[in-house]
Amino acid sequence: MAQDRTSRRIVILGGGFAGVETAIALEKGMSRHERETTEIVLVSENNYLVFQPLLPEVISGTLETLHCIAPIRRLTRWTKLYTRRIERIDLKARQVQLAPGYLPKPLTLNYDHLVIALGTQLNFDLVPGSREHALPFKYLEDALRLRNRIVQALEEADNEPDPAEKQRLLTFLVAGGGFSGVECLAELNDFVQAAVHAYRNIRPEEIRCVLVQSGERILPELDAGLASYAQAILERRGIEIHLNTRMKAVSADAVVIQAKTGGEPQQIPTRTVVTTVPAAPHPLISQLECPQERGRITVDEHLRVTDCDGLWSLGDCAAVPQKDGITSPPTAQHAVRQAKTCAKNILNSLRGKPLKPFLFTGLGKLASLGQRAAVAEVMGIKLRGFLAWLAWRTIYLSKFPGWSGKMRVAIDWTADILLPRDITQLRIRRDDAVHREHFHTGEIIFDAGDFGDKLYVVVRGDVEILKGAAIIATLGEREVFGEMALVSDHGRSATVRAKTDVDVVTVSRSAFQQLVNYLPGVSPAIEEIIQKHGATLPEL
Amino acid sequence: MAQDRTSRRIVILGGGFAGVETAIALEKGMSRHERETTEIVLVSENNYLVFQPLLPEVISGTLETLHCIAPIRRLTRWTKLYTRRIERIDLKARQVQLAPGYLPKPLTLNYDHLVIALGTQLNFDLVPGSREHALPFKYLEDALRLRNRIVQALEEADNEPDPAEKQRLLTFLVAGGGFSGVECLAELNDFVQAAVHAYRNIRPEEIRCVLVQSGERILPELDAGLASYAQAILERRGIEIHLNTRMKAVSADAVVIQAKTGGEPQQIPTRTVVTTVPAAPHPLISQLECPQERGRITVDEHLRVTDCDGLWSLGDCAAVPQKDGITSPPTAQHAVRQAKTCAKNILNSLRGKPLKPFLFTGLGKLASLGQRAAVAEVMGIKLRGFLAWLAWRTIYLSKFPGWSGKMRVAIDWTADILLPRDITQLRIRRDDAVHREHFHTGEIIFDAGDFGDKLYVVVRGDVEILKGAAIIATLGEREVFGEMALVSDHGRSATVRAKTDVDVVTVSRSAFQQLVNYLPGVSPAIEEIIQKHGATLPEL
Questions:
Q1: Which tens digit of pLDDT belongs to each residue from A348-401?
Q2: Among A76, A86, B8, B135, which residue carries the largest CB count within 10 Å?
Q3: C-alpha–C-alpha distance, residues B179 and B55, integer Å
Q4: By CA distance, what is A97's nearest residue in B?
Q5: Nearest CA to B402 among B55, B67, B30, B15?
Q6: Do B522 and A524 count as a contact with CB atoms less than 8 A apart?
Q7: What sign does the dihedral A192-A195-A199-A202 (CA atoms) show?
Q8: Under an 8 A CB cutoff, do A83 and B415 touch?
Q9: End-to-end distance of chain B based on CA atoms, in angstroms?
Q10: What pLDDT is stored for residue B4 in this prediction?
């Protein structure tokens, strides 16, 4: 293994618990000589580690935005950090290619050992419209974006004269009843209930929080008794829980759900949908030529990938066998222990020593329910209510990396007792120049008289053009509509409705104007469409 | 004035100090009967007030991101808040039109009294490339974006092998030597100097912070003695100050500056440029048919716009005469006092009582220099150093709106003494689908072999296509280049250089793929260009 070279390189891909803890454990385990001859490289898109268990608290503002994360540079000492996207992994050439940074130059890293700890991604392919309209809940950005969406919905609801639209704005739906979904909804509900007092025209009982869970109970990871206790607590707070129910589709203003036993699909009007399920493999992993089971990399009990010299994998992206026969669950505590084993084994294989197996089987499980309640199973003991919540805070505070991080969390928790919830909406202006949207059959895409804010191109499905109640035309794939209002500056002159389920690409007003002016071919094509529509669809 | 109607409406435009304080003063000044018959409406894009004096502290992280702002809903009690953009002001019809919220429906507000407090905007028209490449420093978002850019530059510099590129990444330039520019650069310098210790390959002396000021001294708002004290302090910290110098142009990797006395323009290679000057009128105000002087609305000493019944203006967007003969400067303390006078006068005019003139002439001026130093003139007394800094903190803490806001600021200031600076980079992913860029004469737009991340359309100027050192073609206005690398997935096959100063529109790889697939006309036009270039420019 390149033992004869003066310098060796271990490349770790992924800046979550698995990747960062591997770097830390490698640093700790190396002798001074090994440090001088072995380079540890960590590649992570963000320069911080997200402390996932505390992420829900960012929604409610219990924790300051940046306090559920820890800078990777402060956690490691000799590791070289690249904050770039990974373009390609080449196992044969033993190379990893990183995306360009400021300069348009990609970077190629050769490695002796490669550790893949890329985690999983949310799978948006299963539910139509979820990619376009459901908010993921995994990264710090997601928590921040969700918080802003909630505040925006409250702001709009406070001024909304139409009761149906107001109810839609005040409905918040979370799909997924596992740890992540339950904790997210509990904090979301706490935040909305606390924030609502600043809005004069919203009564707390108008808030509707909905949890959709495909399983027959929430928190399947936990003991059934604790799960039903948690469900009772959430229901007492007015949270609506749909069990044995699947989210079938999402659009900009509604979710379609359906019981697994069949029956009529049901529409829930809402403008804020969060999805926490299900996980899909990282795209780089699905392209990788190595043994995999259900999207996870197969490793042996030493965290080594079979038949791939110098390749290791751990964390959520790996199928790690435990000594109790099951596959390691995707939790932070398992990732941290796997990292220690992985680091030890990389060092042992560099030293020509035998490898050690992964022996950890889990210490316990904790789920926070907000409002000083939680459920927990710690080393066989079941806890619930305030005591479980105290255990939750104590354990996670002790696990938070770094003393300054711990201090910041402790300060926030103290301040939260004293200060009212912050309701500021930090707008992250997204340049929605080119965007995709989904509409259910029968949904109105826009109404006559509406402000013309974008152009639509049909990708899949059909739309109907309405003048009053009369259908004056049907448009299908690759047909364009909504161009007139962008050109003329008047409102929409007709109503457009989804005839079937429809996917569209939209181009914003400002992007449209730049494209028409500068991108070749656009201006004559649009002109042609306007003339054609002008002749056949004078009302569009 | 609609005294006979049962309900009257006062509409305030702008959520800065001027607008928010007018709403607060109106609420305080109204009798119970007036409250029941008069609606106060405030329109602000954000649902919070930015406490501008503390904004620089967000760069350094002394203050948590959301702690330099206060939610407008918590500061007012009966005011109706709309967090929307303003589309149009119609003085004749006495109407204001707001942009759509969630629904594509604009909203029209009729008013009896209209208060315009829209502030100013940064003027990007004077310096080529500044709109595209210089970061403004005015809103909370700006502070956050600047902080992230600094961290990104440090991350890249830490791994950069090319010394010239490393120096470019470690150079930070602020244009404008008034209060805002000086405070911004002082905090920026503090942050970088503190953060740099987490980066193993950057030495503090490699950091270059530059201030460009067109006047003959910094802080022209202050006494000359205090300004030169401030300049000496900043220079002692290694900050480079260019006086009598103008920023002439900005591109993605350099700034061109030139002495006002003439002489050769000088290039400063940098990737982080902040502009704090100069102000331009809000576009809604320039369209308004009312008396204006140099972009500011002319008002009388009662803050009333002459010959426009029920129209008032104050704050940075108004030219308010003071009793000492000068026009009120654009500061928070003046806006707050103007708001009180304006509210009083609106109420008096509703009551048919005589109006009161604006009498305030200013209490003092304060500029923080970071590291517990400041300069101040308070009620005629000049302060500098630690004492001035103590006065600065005491005064602004006392002025911060709301007790919970004050608490949060106080907690942060305390924690800052104990905890190391946070260096996390909260990436705000911007979808740069369609974007504009500027290049100076002679700048390389991309090199052969670079990763093909976007398509370019020339808006103004000429570019040269190079094969080695030989110029093989020149392209001008509306011509397209860079399409091949997007289609073929190989790197760039030629180098492109700006022959003159060049403005381009760029379309990102992902947006390009969607547009080619869906927007009519694009695909055949691009095909045609590829064929043409294939015949005449086989190397592009």
A1: 999 999 999 999 888 888 899 988 899 999 888 999 998 888 888 888 888 888
A2: A86
A3: 12
A4: B451
A5: B67
A6: no
A7: positive
A8: no
A9: 69
A10: 42
List of chain B residues whose C-beta atoms are within 8 Å of the C-beta of residue A151: 47
Written as six digits, the tokens of A81 are 């950090």
Q: Which tokens go with B54?
A: 């503390």
Query: For residue B421, which residues of chain A lie inside 8 Å, CB to CB?
Result: none
Bridge partners, A134 (sequence order): A273
Q: Which residues of A touch B446 (CB under 8 A)?
A: 104
Query: Which three-class secondary structure state does DSSP give residue A517?
Result: helix
What whole-number distance in Å separates Cα of residue A269 and Cα of residue A166? 10
Range list of H helices, A352-402: 386-399
Report the 10 Å Cβ neighbour count for A340.
20
Judge contact between A73 and B423, C-beta under 8 A: yes
Q: What is the mean pLDDT of residues B210-215?
A: 96
User: In the block, which residue shows the tokens 């095909």?
Assistant: B527
In the chain, the amino acid numbered B327 is T
Averaged pLDDT, B399-404: 80
Q: With b meaning 16 or more CB within 10 Å and e meaning fewer, what string describes A440-467?
A: beebebbbeebbbbbbbbbbebbbbbbb
If you compute the radius of gyration of chain A from its CA atoms, what whole number of angstroms results? 26
What confidence tens digit (pLDDT) does each residue in A177-195 have? Answer: 999 999 999 999 999 998 8
What DSSP designation does B355 have?
Answer: P
Which positions in chain A touch B427 (Cβ < 8 Å)?
45-46, 141
Under DSSP, the state recorded for A386 is H
Q: Per DSSP, what are the bridge partners of residue A293?
A: A296
Tell me, rounded to whole angstroms, the distance of Cα A31 from its chain centroid.
39
pLDDT mean values, one per 10 residues, chain A (540 residues): 63 96 96 93 92 86 80 90 91 91 80 96 88 88 87 91 94 95 94 90 96 95 93 96 95 92 92 88 90 93 92 96 88 93 96 94 87 88 90 85 80 76 59 76 86 85 91 89 77 89 84 76 76 62
Q: How far is A522 from chain B (nearest CA, A)?
A: 5
The closest CB to that of A433, out of B151, B169, B431, belongs to B431
Cβ pair B66:A427 closer than 8 A:
no
Lowest mean per-residue pLDDT among A386-400, B60-74, B87-101, B337-351: B60-74
Q: Which residue do the tokens 């006062």 mark?
A: B10
- The count of CB pairs under 8 A between chains A and B is 237
Chain B nearest CA to A240, separation (Å): 24
Among the listed residues A309, A368, A358, the one whose alpha carbon sits nearest the alpha carbon of residue A336: A358
Alpha carbon distance A191, A189 (integer Å): 5
B103 and A165 within 8 Å at the Cβ level: the answer is yes
From the number of C-beta atoms within 10 Å of its C-beta (0-12, 13-18, 19+), residue A32 rates as exposed
Distance from C-alpha of B115 to C-alpha of B7, rounded to nearest angstrom:
18
C-beta of residue B102 within 8 angstroms of C-beta of residue A169: yes
Q: Do the strands B38-43 and B80-82 form a parallel or antiparallel pair, or are they unpaired?
A: parallel
Query: Which residues 6+ apart lie within 8 Å of B512 measured at CB?
Result: B454, B455, B486
Nearest chain B CA: its distance from A538 CA (Å) = 20
Q: Which residues pair with B319 in a beta bridge?
A: B298
Token digits of residue A459 = 């990708």
CB atoms near residue A530 (< 10 Å): 16
Three-state DSSP state, B109: strand
| Eight-state DSSP code of residue B103 | S
Which residues are A481's β-sheet partners?
A456
Q: Which amino acid is at B153?
A: A
Dist. CA B514–CA B53, nearest whole Å: 44
